[in-house]
């Protein structure tokens, strides 16, 4: 069996270290930095010829820097004769533009997928893609894990009975996800009718289903970026009479004025996974960070041993 080595970019080293801890492996040595003109520099500090290499690097903000660093790491490993290179991308950036919804716009998700495969990645391991069809943009195998077991464990740990819960979909596109959680947790299903005014602004019109009054509302999403949609949905749910509102999302990107919006919102607790690092200045008292390191570590172990990882999808929200 070829030797397993895990390297980390600069985007989320704590997650890479946690994965290594679960696998009882040291984090492999790599030197990353920049030349004086801002170009990225990379040097693999270990012999990786014939090894099975996993590169942990979410393409979170600063997206362009982290993406370029990932591409350079892949190229470095390819030229150092690694046997197999798996790009572990817990959060896949540039995922929003996955189709041409108007004239003269790019399909950026496909472009980035091409860059990663052409750089030399033999496989991609990711989590909760914004659109599942992005898997088909890659010309290599893609394992898209779901954070549903981690988010489900958080929600189930709260001391509320089935009769007190209502699972709220923050928009029509999240109905399937919300329905999955409602079936597993128990409780009614409600949907917030979200209207998008432009790429940056949304508004919440009506609530379908329920009832919500006097209930504890749970909202699940794949990512929170500026916080506008989830905070708007929380405000509408609060107006409908929910006594507490819990939000759980896989990717806490939390850019722009997201922290201010969440701080001023009616959200009781917001839980996000550590696919994207949450710096200390963004850790509000009602913010919890859940780790997906055990899930990613198990997937890496199974991929390394050429075992099926289907069992990791059994609790998904699909």
TrEMBL record:
Domain of life, per UniProt, equals Bacteria
The UniProt note on the cofactor reads as follows: Binds 2 Mg(2+) ions per subunit.
Write out the catalysed reaction: D-ribose 5-phosphate + ATP = 5-phospho-alpha-D-ribose 1-diphosphate + AMP + H(+)
**Which keywords appear in this protein's UniProt record, sorted alphabetically?**
ATP-binding, Cytoplasm, Kinase, Magnesium, Metal-binding, Nucleotide biosynthesis, Nucleotide-binding, Transferase
Q: Which CDD domains match?
A: PRTases_typeI
Q: Where does ATP bind?
A: 37-39, 96-97
The record's annotation in NCBIfam families points to:
PRK01259.1, ribP_PPkin
What is this protein's record name?
A: Ribose-phosphate pyrophosphokinase
Write the gene name. Answer: prs
């Amino acid at each position: 069996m070829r030797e397993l080595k895990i390297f980390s970019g600069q985007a989320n080293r704590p997650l890479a270290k946690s994965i290594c801890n679960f696998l009882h492996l040291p984090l492999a040595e790599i030197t990353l930095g920049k030349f004086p003109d801002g170009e990225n520099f990379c040097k693999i500090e270990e012999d990786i010829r014939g090894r099975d290499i996993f590169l942990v690097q979410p393409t979170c903000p600063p997206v362009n820097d982290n993406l370029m660093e990932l591409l350079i790491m892949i190229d470095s490993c390819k030229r150092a004769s690694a046997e197999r290179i798996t790009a572990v991308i817990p959060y896949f950036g540039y995922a929003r533009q996955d189709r041409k919804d108007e004239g003269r716009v790019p399909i950026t998700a496909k472009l980035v997928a091409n860059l990663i495969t052409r750089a030399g990645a033999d496989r991609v391991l990711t989590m909760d893609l914004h659109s599942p069809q992005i898997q088909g943009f890659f010309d290599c195998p893609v394992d898209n894990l779901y954070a549903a077991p981690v988010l489900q464990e958080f929600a189930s740990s709260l001391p509320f009975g089935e009769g007190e819960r209502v699972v709220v979909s923050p928009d029509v596109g999240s109905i399937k996800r919300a329905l999955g959680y409602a079936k597993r947790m128990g409780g009614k299903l409600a949907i917030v009718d979200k209207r998008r005014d432009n790429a940056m602004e949304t508004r919440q019109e009506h609530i379908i289903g329920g009832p919500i009054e006097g209930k504890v509302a749970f909202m699940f999403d794949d990512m929170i970026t500026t916080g506008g949609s989830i905070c708007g949905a929380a405000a509408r749910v609060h107006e409908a009479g929910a006594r507490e509102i819990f939000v759980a999302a896989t990717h806490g990107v939390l850019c722009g004025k997201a922290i201010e919006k969440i701080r001023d919102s009616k959200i009781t607790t917001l839980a996000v996974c550590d696919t994207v690092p949450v710096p200390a200045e963004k850790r509000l008292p009602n913010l919890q960070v859940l780790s997906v390191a055990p899930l990613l570590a198990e997937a890496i172990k199974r991929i390394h041993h050429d075992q099926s990882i289907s069992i990791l999808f059994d609790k998904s929200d699909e």
